[in-house]
Amino acid sequence: MAADPKVAYLSTHTRDKLESCIAEYNNMYGTSFSTKDSQAFENYFKDISKRLKEREKETAKEEDRLDILLVVSMFLTGFDAKKVNTMYVDKNLKHHGVIQAYSRTNRILGEQKSQGNILCFRNLKKATDDAITLFSNKDAIEDIILPPYQ
């Protein structure tokens, strides 16, 4: 229980946690990536990108597919996979970070995909409106953002 003062919480450095995640990835896919040198880490990043982009190809093996990707920051910018449809956001984003993150799901794929879906676990309405106003047209907010579910 989080409020229990008797519980000792383990604290690790974020790099150690990333190494643990990479080790699990290596075990799953028979790879040997790490954060120990920049090339090994860059290759890890490229491998994830490739698996996510190629997951829908007929030639993709079931055991090689990557079905979900938990992102802290690296794949929020500069990543493009048209078939990625839904993003779950649980991070306070603002300015260009909002635009970049949301753009990951908004790659059009003909009639199959006219927009992406974003499920946000934080209230980013104001941050989103501010980002659209800053980088686009403040009068276009209602044209860009579909009305909320409620």
Describe this structure in words.
The chain is mainly alpha-helical. The chain has two domains: 11-65, no CATH class; 68-150, no CATH class. The chain is 37% helix and 5% strand. It contains five helices and two strands; from the N terminus they run H-H-E-H-E-H-H. It has a two-stranded parallel sheet. Helix 3 (96-103) links the parallel strand 1 (86-89) and strand 2 (117-120). The longest helix is centred in the N-terminal third of the chain and has 17 residues, at 38-54. It is globular. The mean pLDDT is 79.
Topology record:
Blueprint: H1 14-29, H2 38-54, E1 86-89, H3 96-103, E2 117-120, H4 125-135, H5 141-144
Parallel strand pairs: 1-2
User: Which structural class matches the secondary elements?
Assistant: mainly alpha
Largest beta sheet, briefly? 2 strands, parallel
Radius of gyration: 19 Å
Number of distinct beta strands = 2
In percent, how helical is the residue content? 25-40%
What is the beta-strand fraction?
5-15%
Number of domain units:
2
The residue-averaged pLDDT reads 79
Q: In a nutshell, what does this entry contain?
A:
This protein is mainly alpha-helical and 150 residues long.
Search tags:
150 residues, two-stranded parallel sheet, 5 helices
